[in-house]
Amino acid sequence: MKINYIMKRAVLASAVLAATAAWLVPTSIASAAGPTLVVYSAQGYDKAAVDAFNATHPGFAVTLNDNSTGPLLQQIQAEGHNPKWGVLWVDGATAFAALDRQGLLAKHIVPKVSFNAVGRANIPADGSFVPTGLTATGALVYDSAQISKSQLPKTWAQLSATKYKGMLGMNDPTQSGPTYPMIAGIMDFLGHYTKGSTAASVRDGEAFLTKLKANGLVINATNGPTLGAIQSHAIKMAIIQSSAGYGQELSASPSIRVTYLKPAIALPGVVGIDGLMPKNVRAEAQKFVDWLLSRAGQHAMQTGDPQGDSLFWPVLNGEKPANKVIPPLSSVPMLTINPYVWGPLENSVNSWFTNNINNG
Fold first, then answer.
1. Where in the chain is the domain with CATH 3.40.190.10?
2. Closest CA to 180 of 123, 241, 133
């Protein structure tokens, strides 16, 4: 009788284990298939790139959280040390330098590919982020039907002249990823920053932006509304991202043109990996980063948003811009800022901008 009781208990235990195993099957299958990698991105070609990657890399899924850069960075900060993102892919290295200083980025993720000089110049010493392409921020986009090229300012200082009162627009740096690097570049250039304290450069930049505000500067959230203001003749020109201007020129606005003040500010498209994710997720993230710098990845980037973000200068040897509307990079006066100097100042500068330019 005792033996039968033991056998019955054993059978019952087996049934419980079987039921438990059956309940766990979906999780086990998901683990066997690989982790889900979430890409936070503000690139116009991000969906095309993710779709192309998923189509050729079975075994794990890449999902996309697409938004403007500002909201994505706010989301990352809110998540803190309990992140949901695996990869961040936006324009501008300053945000990545700040994240690196916080210990949130994986190190040494740079693929072994042939970067050109521009690409090499935008790789940090610890390899915590990687350039995937280059545009310029602070490009002067204008409507040639409203103002001729000969009438345009040639330098940043000339931009605040009273003859341009009410003609100029720009984006909000808390929403538009390219805008804070532009402001940092203005501060760097006008303040003659070389090394050491940034205080004087920040003050010079704030004084310049205050002049623009007094001269009727129009602020919109992102490229779309700013370009719309040019089309509606609310403004005649704007300092925004080069690819947005070239895209508008190629689409419905043939009178839109792009030129450059001296200098424009180099704006790398940048990708980084969340260093707090589990090892298996970081490994899959590395596969995605490696693929972005492959020929297939570059093709997806250059075709995914042909009248927008795809209009960039490549950072790899052997790659060419997607469209002839993009001039040779050598013809564009370009300033490359140090993201580790300016990245940590982003929150304070943006707060000043909100309080004194947006709401001032």
1. 33-134+270-322, 135-267+335-358
2. 241
